[in-house]
Amino acid sequence: MKNKKPSPVAAIVLAVVIGLLVIALLNGVIRPTQVVTAKVAIAAGTILTEELVEIRTIPTGAKPAGALSDLAAVSGKTLAVSRAPGDFITGAVLGESAGAGIPAELEAGHVAMAIRVDSTTGVAGLLRAGQTVSVIGMLSPEVLEMEELTAVQMPAGELVPTEDAFLPLSSGTPTPTPTPAPPKAPLARMVVSGLRVIMVPQAFRYEELPAGASEAQLFSSARSSMASSEGAVIVLDVPTTLVEIAPGYRVDPPALLAALDAYGVLYLVLEPEGGLGLDVVDALTVNLGELYQEINSAE
After folding, report:
1. Measured between alpha carbons, how far is 262 from 124 in angstroms, rounded to an integer?
2. What is the spatial distance between Cα 56 and Cα 294, in angstroms, rounded to a whole number?
3. Does domain 32-105 have CATH number 3.40.1360.10?
4. Which one of 24, 93, 95, 268 has the fewest CB atoms closer than 10 angstroms to its CB?
5. Where are the domains of the chain?
6. How many whole angstroms from its chain centre is CA 55?
7. First to last CA, the chain
8. How far apart are CA 120 and CA 103, in angstroms?
9. pLDDT tens digits, residue range 229-266?
10. Which tens digits make up the pLDDT trace of 149-197?
């Protein structure tokens, strides 16, 4: 008796079912869809137009949450986060909600803070979002002599007795050894480091003009030069955790920067890429009066 050959129908049906499942799966993942992306580099604060964005086709599985697919939906909206060419334009970067833009970039325990800089204090306009900076604070004697800021007035050069400098005399009466007070002069010191730059106005950024620049480029360069000389406001990511700027002396960084911005001068220094911030505890305060005395006495 001959053995019956297995029917190929079952295998064919199984192959067809598997093929349909694979097609359905791939269709759900790689099915093309359209999204709005940046056509050119766009700075934060820019009002979007259809000339700045474009439609691109990507697989459905690669579409990020909140991605927009209609140019009309973004036209006229303000960009809250800088975009590079090809970056997706999503609802989260348009600044249409309280959690969009800069607030979405901040970690817990951090705040965004604006300070005013010019070409000198703002690293000549070389600052870019994502870089980290250290802050040098400067105070003048006039600030310290303000009645509402000074608890005790002390004339310059007054001799101040030290607690551990009493020498016994033959009469047994201790006499204090006078110690000259530091001269009243402008003070400078590195106070905070590792602050991330969040936003720099486009007009403040340093730009070089190519040979044969167009009229529009010349206008843009003139606007940048004016902004650098007049000053601009940049935004920094500032931690709220107390920092020790001198042994045993801790301060609140936002309050410190606000006070220096209002009553002193802030100088920003650019840190190396990937740096973790400089050690401000070991930084020394520069007293220009003492510096002058040292230089003068060395002659």
Report:
1. 21
2. 66
3. no
4. 24
5. 32-105, 110-149+163-298
6. 31
7. 123
8. 29
9. 577 889 999 999 998 887 888 899 999 999 999 989 99
10. 544 444 444 444 544 444 444 455 556 666 666 678 888 888 899 999 9
